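Why show two proteins at once? Because comparison is the fastest way to build intuition. When a single record is shown, students tend to memorize it. When two are placed side by side, the eye starts asking what differs. So, the first record is below.
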Amino acid sequence: MSTITGASVIDTVDQGPRPGDKASTGRTGDRLLSGAATGAGLFVITLVVLVGAFLVSRAVPALAANQANFFTSRVFSVDGGTLRFGIADLLWVTVLSSIFAMVLAVPVAIGVALFITQYAPRRLAAPAGYLIDLLAAVPSIVYGLWGAKVLLPPYREHVQDPLSNALGWIPLFKPTSVSAGTILLVSIVLAIMILPIVTALSREVFAQTPLTHKEGALALGATRWEMIRTAVLPFGRPGVISASMLGLGRALGETIAVTIILSTLPGGSPWSFSVFSGGETFASRIANNASEFDSPAKTGAFIAAGLVLFVLTFAVNAVARIVIERRKAFSK
């Protein structure tokens, strides 16, 4: 009859994982993954800080030499030795076109995402999702050319003229003399461009709704729409907000399509708050005048405009993060 001494038992219990054991390899892998994730996060933060510091360092000298109010002036002149530039027009056109794009795109994206995840049969849902996702692969220049050459005539006949005739008494829809690309036309094209982003993310969030929540609502006698309203939409609301903010960031920074479509108002043209007016966004202004970056002062003026767009996009994402966190806390 064999016996086990106390020392042998202690030795057996105290033996830890040796090199080559799965546990040791797992802990090493965890440390490596944790370090890589931390390094990636710090790299992104450092990159954003460096970009912001670069923009500030280049914009401050131009802002100091600016002879106009940077926030309220509608003049943007960097020719000659005097700098007179403001962002009032650029800010209005950028924000207005992006907001209208969101108003047009987000409801459609939510409807498409709900159809794919809650209504469509499996054999139809997958192809429909692929087709929506393919819109994201279309280059911006194609959207711009399509909007300027194909969409413009029917837009003017069936959208701009009826709206201006019916709602022209509202300053936002006041008729203008702009016959080419307007803010509303750009908004329609931007809405199509951000549609796949919002749809794809909303679809993934809606698909993650717990089955027990949906079955519980149906078991209590809810119709399919009532189940969606009480179970799917509340669960997916933070994800939809995140998707919408990503789409808004895309709309704020879009350059090529906006540059091709939007009519540039010549100097001295009457200013209008109407969506049927032209103008320039921050991105299109910088792209249209890239050839003027021949001196630090001129370059700094456009970098100052880019800094405002940078801050605006950062603020939008920060607000979205706050809203999402509040929604999560409320849902708990």
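Second record. Ask yourself what differs from the first in the token line.
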Amino acid sequence: MTPERLHPILETCRSRRILVAGDLMLDEFVWGRVSRISPEAPVPVVDVIREECYPGGAANVARNLRPFCDTVHVLGLLGNDAPGARMRELLDTSGIRLDGLVEEAGWPTIRKTRIIARQQQLVRVDRESPPARNSARTARVIERFAGLLPSLDAIILEDYGKGFLDQELASTLLAQATACGVPVTVDPNPRNPLDWAGAAAVKPNRSEALAAAGLAESNPPVEAIRDPVLAEAGRRLLERWRIPLLLVTLGEEGMLLFREGMPPYHSPTKAREVFDVSGAGDTAIALFTLALSAGAMPEEAAEIANHASGVVVGKLGTATLTRDELIRSFEEHA
């Protein structure tokens, strides 16, 4: 795919209207320096230099979309607490629409706190309590979704396995979107095995694809296109989920696109350096979906997603990229 082909796709992306539904969480980063070991235990003492917060989980997918399109909605659950208020503030500042947010009194907003020193993550502290199933809350979510659906060009279901998406809600969202002709892509979670029938595309990583297909983990060959286990996983998942597209992310091996009735398409990695892979999958599903909604062919959308992921893994933290960075990556690899 040439840079010349990329430009008209990106121009169309500006007008797309995308909704991201899934588990919302607040990503907190504590940056510091280490100069000594604690006398209390054999652990480093971190002198804090700065602290930062970013929208995480499904909200990070929305954050990745925002530099490329003007209208991005999030549909998800927040607690009536300080982290929830902080999340609203961050999303609003980013220009992301808040009309799909559902507040749950008495339930704490999910937080992930990463402590980093010398460019290395030392520890991650997770604060989460999966919400109990609640029919009234599900009805509120579906009502918000139905109100937004007529204006949308595409939907992303982002499942981090934190309790927002269950089979009832996923099936309802997929059915309503299909009835309106709005394509849905999915970033699945193996801890929450759902049926994604009706989706336009599903994007697992290799381990998730093998797990969903019921295959044992194996050492991949040097060339992803010659991976027989992954090929079998792709065949099974296209059939099981009855989907036209399956995009499998492969880390340093890039991405492999399985397309109904066609041989797999391999896009080798575009990353120059890898500092932090957190959030790379969010970038991939965001740009893949956006490109498809803008009229890109599936192989072109996979290339765009791969270039975008290659940029963000070269940054520390839950990173995003700009339009200019994506264009530059295509020019450098032309």
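One difference worth noting in the second protein: The longest helix spans residues 298-312.
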